[in-house]
Amino acid sequence: MPPLRLLALLAGLLVSARAGLAPLVDIVGGRKARRLEFPFLASIQNEGRHFCGGALIHTRFVLTAASCFRNLNPGVAMVVLGAYDLRRRERSRQTFSIGSISENRYDPQENLNDLLLLQLDREANLTSNVVLVPLPPQNAMVEAGTSCQVAGWGNRKNGGRLSRFPRVVNVTVTPENRCRPNNLCTGVLTRRGGICQGDGGTPLICNGLAHGVASFSPNPCGKGPDFFTRVALFRDWIDSVLNPPGQGLA
């Protein structure tokens, strides 16, 4: 994104901010999520260490960001569902290897089409700790000013440590002319907050639907804007992967 356009976006967020309404907000910002508040969250791990988030959208598929695997072979990663405290071996956890991946014209240079479907090696067992998150219909829009939520185990500051528990922050969708056509952009209007390292691939939840997949932030963590892949642009493709002709997965 051109520097002047980024400066305009940051200036717009600053003008809209209501100073003094809240303390510094932690994923960067926000609060510790309650247990079972986001039971569709997936922790994607390498050698037992979380490095990206994701969302369970089908008993055999997790939605995440293609950029999570830019420098990592998916064959060595594991998907953990039902996690809450990453430092404990919780009985609620279900751990999977990755059977296959599906991507749709991902462009790492431009961070475009930053979406990936991970097929699990077996079906997830749906419980109170492991549920599916619904997706928006093809081409659905999210209006600027919409309040959404994003949660994850990512760092609470640049270069910081991963969070032990998922943290959630309320974010606001920015106008389209302050983003890119294939992305949803968000900011936090009460000081600092947003995604950080380790939050890539985590879902953006707006009106109960996973409208975005965390892709990148061009600025230090919590200083926004944050860029999410627009899931609604890929809904038809996602359905074609989940329900291939003659397979009957769903």
From TrEMBL:
GO terms for molecular function: heparan sulfate proteoglycan binding; heparin binding; serine-type endopeptidase activity. It is found in: Cytoplasmic granule membrane. It comes from the Eukaryota. Keywords: Antibiotic, Antimicrobial, Chemotaxis, Disulfide bond, Glycoprotein, Heparin-binding, Membrane, Serine protease homolog, Signal, Zymogen. It is a peripheral membrane protein. Coiled coil: none annotated. GO terms for biological process: antimicrobial humoral response; cell chemotaxis; defense response to virus; glial cell migration; intracellular signal transduction; microglial cell activation; monocyte extravasation; neutrophil-mediated killing of bacterium. GO terms for cellular component: azurophil granule membrane; extracellular space. Residues 27-243 form the Peptidase S1 domain. InterPro entries: Peptidase_S1_PA (IPR009003), Peptidase_S1_PA_chymotrypsin (IPR043504), Peptidase_S1A (IPR001314), Trypsin_dom (IPR001254). Residues 1-19 form the signal peptide. Pfam families: Trypsin. PANTHER family: AZUROCIDIN (PTHR24271:SF10), KALLIKREIN-RELATED (PTHR24271). This is Azurocidin.
